Amino acid sequence: MPSKSKSPYKFSYTDAIQGKELYNYFGNRVLESRASGGRIVAVKVKPADGFVRSEADMMHYASQQPGILTPQVLGCYDVDPEITVTVSDLVEGQSLDNVWHTMTKAEQKSIKQQLKEQLRLFRQCTQPYIGRIKRQETKNFYDRIHLHYMGPFESEEEFDSWCLERVKSPTAKKIWAQLLPGMRGTGEQKFVLTHGDLAARNIMVKDGKITGIVDWEYSGFFPEYMEYALAAVVRDGHEDWWKPHLKEILEPCGFKRARFTAAIKWRGW
C-alpha cells in the first residue's frame, strides 16, 4: 500500500482529527477531510496499533482487484504515539442501513444481486494460507473484546486445531476432534478473500448502486464457509433486519461447521 513518504496527498494531522465526522461506531471514527490538492478523502482514526496497517493492506489489496468496490487506500499515518489514521478515497452515497427501508422491492432485490456479485469476486481472490496479505495475523473475531489476534495458519487443519483449543468442555472437545477431519475440504487448499463484517452500515449505495464496501477491520483470507459463519453465528453487530437478507445472499456453510463456529465463540458445545 502507499507509504507515507510516497503519498502525494498531504494534509494537516490536526485537520484530519477535527474533520467532519461521518461515522463513529464504538470509537472507530471516520471523518471527511481535504488533501492539499483539493481531493476530498475519508480519514479513519483509530488507536495506534500495527494491526491498523494490516487492515489498510487488506483494503488496498481488495481495491486493486478487478470489479471489487472498495475505496483506494492513499496512506496510513501515525498521528502521534497513540493515534493512527488511514486515508482513502471518500465513497459516494449513503450507508445501506440508512436507505434500505426507503427502497422499493425491486431496488432491494437489485442491491442483493449486486452484493452477491461482489462476493463472487471476493472468492476469486485466494491465498494458500489463512491470514492477511503478506501472511500477517488477523483479528481474533471470536474474542468478545476484539483486542487479540490470530494466525497466520498454513492449513485449515492448523486453524481448526487452534479453534478447538477454545472449546472448554473435554467431552465436547473430544467429539469435535473426531468430527473435524470429515468437515474439511479435500484437495488443494485455497482460502478466499473474506470481508468479515458485511453489516448494512458497511455497504455504501447511491442511486440504486453499490458504490463501495468499507471497514475491512475483520478481513482476511479464510475457508469459504467463514463469511456466512461470521454473519450468521459470530458477529453480534449486524442489524437484526439485515441478517435474514445477508443469509440469502451468502453461500451457507454446513450445519456442523456452523455449530462448531458457535462452540468456538461460546467456548463450549
UniProtKB/TrEMBL annotation:
Family annotation (SUPFAM superfamilies): Protein kinase-like (PK-like)
Pfam families: APH
EC number of this enzyme: 2.7.11.1
GO MF: protein serine/threonine kinase activity
Identification of the protein by name: non-specific serine/threonine protein kinase
Cited InterPro entries: AGP_Transferase (IPR051678), Aminoglycoside_PTrfase (IPR002575), Kinase-like_dom_sf (IPR011009), Tyr_kinase_AS (IPR008266)
Reactions performed catalytically: L-seryl-[protein] + ATP = O-phospho-L-seryl-[protein] + ADP + H(+); L-threonyl-[protein] + ATP = O-phospho-L-threonyl-[protein] + ADP + H(+)
Residue ranges constituting the Aminoglycoside phosphotransferase domain according to the UniProt record: 48-235
Keywords, in A-Z order: Kinase, Transferase
